[in-house]
Amino acid sequence: MKNATYYKFYYVFLLVFSCSFLFGNAQTPNEDKLFESYKNYSKLPRETAYGHLNKSTLIKGESLGFSVYLLDKHTKKSSVLTKNVYCTLQNKSGKIVKNKMILAEKGVASGIFEIDSLFTTGDYIFKAYTNWMRNFDEQNFYVQHIKVIDPDKDLFIKADNSTVFNLDAQFLPEGGHLLRDTKNTVGVVIKDKNGFGIGQLNGTVLDNTGSEITNFTTNTYGICKFEFTPKPLQNYTIKLNDQKQTSIPLAKAKAKGVTMRLQDIYNTIILVFKTNTATLPSINNKKFKLSISNGVDLKMMDITFKNKTEIAMFINYNDFYRGINIITLFDQNNTPLLERLYFNHDTISSLKTGITNVTKFKDSLRLKIPISTVNNEQFNSLSISVLPANTKPYNHHHNIISYSYLQPYIKGHIENARYYFTDVNNQKKSDLDNLLLTQGWSSYEWNTIFNQAPSNQFQFEDGITVTTNLNSTKGNTFLFFPLKNTPSFTRTVKEGERNFSTRGLLLTAGEQLKVGVYDEKNRVIKPNLYAQFSPMEIPSLTNVYNSLNYKNTSAFKYDSSMPILDESWNKIESLDTVLLSTTKEKDRIEKIKRLNHGTVSVFNDHKRKTTPDLSTFLTSVNWVSMQNPINLTLSIRNGRPLAPPPVVYLNDMIINDLTFLIDLDMTMIDYIITDKEGLGEGMRGGGGGVIKIYTNYMLRIREYSTSWESSQALDFPLSFSESKRFYTPLYSNYTNNFFQNYGVIDWFPICNSIKNNTIEINVLDTKNKQIMLFIEGVANNGTFISEEKIITIN
After folding, report:
1. Which residues contact 474 (CB under 8 A, 6 or more apart)?
2. Which of 12-26, 313-327, 539-553 has the highest average model confidence (pLDDT)?
3. Mean pLDDT of 389-409
4. Residue 645 burial (CB < 10 Å; 0-12/13-18/19+)?
5. Helices of type H across 341-425
6. What's the mean per-residue pLDDT of the chain?
7. Rounded CA gap, 718 and 648, in Å?
8. Average pLDDT over residues 145-155
9. Does an H or E element contain 29, and which?
10. What is the spatial distance between Cα 251 and Cα 186, in angstroms, rounded to a whole number?
């Protein structure tokens, strides 16, 4: 095979077949075109999204918690180029009910959709995508169905007892078509009206006379295969042993052509290409090209039929790409004739957690989940859904492995795709291969590859971009005041320029961007700016996609005499604020003091109101602070006249220009740490000490807000959704069927603090003997974790 880099194949030829492989040192013009087209089509990097939802069936009033993992499609490592992630919930008619933009850090984002009065009983679709994904036809974005139940209106919802009536039966020849007088492999997929496979269904292949040629039985997901040799002047019928004894004519076999068969035997793949005697004279000396690709890389070799009707090759697993392999046979004109998908499980591994330790603490359970295989020096992030052990509403078809390695490369949807990647064994590998046999051609369409390479029309987004036009503004150095997630910075515009762009701003809901300009006296004054923003709105995802709903295998019955705690769904946030805020604030302050050197000064509303500026505060805690309208100097009072200035941080960002702090809004101060010894700062803080200032924009209170006369406020049309805590409903009973089947215990969207190779979480003790953990995530720079764990409470 020819490749951009040297690649060696080991072939063992079947003695019963005659075969010939032509290896050329120089590529023909058609080969050049194929390689060049593929190179152009795949040169733009792809990123994929996987969404982990806390469950798939929600009761109205609950919260849908979700984490989104952005991944490099090829390497499966976290994609860090994008910060803007768009999430939508739409109803079955396609109308978007809710949407938001969430912030991704190191390729992971999380958010919450409240299932409120905008929802009623029915099916909805959750999507997660980035702007960059809109450049490609492949389904790189994430799609998942969810169900919503409104118990106030629907106390009972019956189970979906689908039968085989109105079934969809497809018979798909391996490679793409049937060929006469040649043994063909035919994939079978039989689904019900809702798209779910019909398992254990028998079928018989009959000829013109009604004689049985062969038979088959579908597996749990309605999939299987059979082999037979079509003969001339024969029509074939499939008779299914369903309630209607359905008969379906099989597509007629071609008189001429080539077929493909793939066999997996002992760490080796056998690829067999067959033709018939009617075809051989016309192709005997013609060159075919066999390619193996994975969406990025392409390997190719020449094959010819030399007076024989069969060509076979043995290829070791190691010679295939990890994950999906797209095997395509081309004629001499680069026309794709046959295609087959093959999945190579070799080198794909996932992490496993150990035995969970459970201890009871007051009304909570403390879970310590060991995960010894995690490398703490690399980025790791997990999400965990905690549900009752007998839960019914966690029916995700995919896990992070199946969605990343499989879904983006196929055109259809897959029922319970996570089955093929959970506790993988030979049976599951065989089942996956039968599935791929029924998928036909991959999502990488050769007509598009040859004629329409994707362009980077839609860019990677690393925040919000503001393009600022200068009207009558005097001065050319602009000060951007700090935001919750963006530190302060300055921009200098060259003489004569009347506009400039600033990207990477991370505004959250309710924030304004405040911009000042330095005048000739180095004072910050209010500019006169006209600003344009990007993005202006959440972009539409118009790509065609495939997804599958969930089979409702059990009836929903709500006992209105055992309701959830009165109005707990609607008032849980305020309830938590009233009952728990004081205790939590004390715990937070103690934690801050415990983890930091120096003196911690926590601001309350009175202190924010009565402290006019930073200089006044520092003087009150025995620092030397001198301030005038254009200058601020700070030093420690230690008797050394030449003491260096302190190292000053604002929200963990070093502030080099102290003049910015003259106008610092004290109404947003959360706490300030002052340390004259500079412990932990090395040489930087050893002489002048350290000052760390932390703000919290949620603390802004209108009556305490300053006028900010020295800045212009810019309102953004779109900002990042504020990260909120997931609130679990309070239930009147934690042992009844309602809670056991549909209840929620907790949701942890981002667990990336894995200490001593252990994940530690606290959940409510519901007094049940078992709970279930659903864990998904990324670890060790390109490895996944996907687990379902039953935890027994002693």
Report:
1. 517, 519, 520
2. 313-327
3. 94
4. middle
5. 400-405
6. 85
7. 32
8. 83
9. helix 29-42
10. 11
Place of tokens 């919802």: 157
Is 81 within 8 Å of 460 (Cβ atoms)? yes
Coil, strand or helix at 454: coil
Whole-angstrom Cα distance, residue 43 to residue 51?
A: 26
- Nearest alpha carbon to residue 573 among 726, 700, 696: 726
**Tokens at residue 607, please?**
């202190």
Rounded CA-CA distance 31/334 in Å is: 8
Q: What is the band of 568 on the pLDDT scale with cuts at 50, 70, 90?
A: very low
Q: What CA–CA distance (Å, rounded) separates 655 from 490? A: 12
What integer pLDDT is reported at residue 14 of this predicted model?
33
Asked whether the predicted pLDDT for residue 701 surpasses 80, the reply is no
**CA-based Rg of the chain, rounded to a whole angstrom?**
32
Q: How many CA atoms lie within 13 A of 780 on its CB side?
A: 13
pTM of the model: 0.81
**Beta-strand (E) ranges in 150-183?**
156-157, 168-173
Spell 24-58 as b/e; 16+ CB within 10 A means b: eeeeeeebeebbebbeebbeeebbbbbbbbbbbbb
- Taking the CA atoms of 78, 82, 83 and 85 in sequence, report the sign of the dihedral they define: negative
Query: In terms of Cα–Cα distance, which of 326, 274, 712 is closest to 530?
Result: 712
Widest distance between CA atoms in the chain: 110
